[in-house]
Amino acid sequence: MKRLLQTIKIEVNHKTYVKDPESSDLGKRIVEHSILMIHEIGFDSFTFKKLGASIGSNESSIYRYFENKHKLLLYLTSWYWGWQEYQFVFATNSIADPSEKLRKAIEVISKPVVLDDSFTHINEVLLNDIIINEYSKSYLTKEVDTENKEGYFEIYKRMVLRISEMIQGVDPNYPYPSSLASTVLEGSLHQYFLTQHFPSLTNCNKKVTPTDYFTHLVFNSLNK
Hints:
By secondary structure, this protein is mostly helical.
């Protein structure tokens, strides 16, 4: 099974890159070290010049893979949601009971991330922290409508749809399945952000997890 998982390739919208970074060692190093650097200094301070110096390569070589750092962020966030989707599907596919299936889905979405050795050049723990702190910068732009039409957020939207369908599987009469699904997906990031930076604004802590909160929220909203 481990060998099978190592053959999985997370499909990312090809418009996010000029050249697929998965196609070469340099491309993989660009992705690997961009995660390390963005996690360390933040996306606003991150530049291709700094990244080039970090990996011992010309800045121009990075532009052969990514048009700009916004496209790189779109690539990283899309890869993350694709990875989450494969975790999500793998964990829930064999569960027949709709309520248990939804509980497992909430758990997968909201639990702390651990390293996945199927993708050795990507540190999923650090990438998760980047998503928590920087994901909104990928879509809070003037270009969001155009980028949405071009499919940049397709995986994220597909995840919301999957959760929405599971909610309807538990309670077909619940009138707001998409709203609740997107609340869980986006809200899980926000709760981790609050625990890191504004702990007085959340009840999640070392004893109460985001999984506890969202499981309670969802199932108390539905006619179980």
